[in-house]
Amino acid sequence: MAHMNDPGGGGTARWIPLLKWAGWPAGAIGGAMQIMGRESGGSPHRWNRGGSPCFGFFQIHRCWWGSRGFAWIYRAINQARLAWHIFHDVQHDSWLPAWAATY
Q1: pLDDT digits (tens, 9 = 90+) for 12-51
Q2: CA distance 99 to 48
Q3: Contacting residues for 55 by C-beta, under 8 A, at least 6 apart
Q4: Residues near 19 by Cβ (< 8 Å), separated by ≥ 6?
Q5: Quick one: which of 10, 13, 61, 65 has the fewest CB in 10 Å?
């Protein structure tokens, strides 16, 4: 599990095994890589530079994870699962509106 949360290296492709483990289907991973690349360059510990309370490789807003705390969102697997929930369950397999600025 530790290797999945910190696979080493750089970029977004290193996170493909984690996304699959988190439940992302193969058909959605390409889009996830695109969003991840634009939002954070694949860095799971990046804060939004514009001052908004968004964090992680998908730059998920604090309104989605704030009640769980920073220690929870700091783990890459939790970011991947939460991003899948937003993409699939909330937005019905769409990157819009949550990632409208990047997609």
Answers
A1: 999 999 999 999 999 999 999 999 999 999 999 999 988 8
A2: 13
A3: 45, 46, 47, 48, 62, 65, 73
A4: 29, 32, 80, 84
A5: 10
Number of CB atoms found within 10 A of residue 74's CB = 15
Query: Which DSSP string do the residues of 39-83 spell out, in sequence order?
Result: HHTT-TTPBPTTSSSEETTTTEEHHHHGGG-HHHHTSHHHHHHHH
d(CA 73, CA 77): 9
Torsion angle of C-alpha atoms 83, 28, 75, 10, degrees rounded to 10: -130
Entry pTM: 0.88
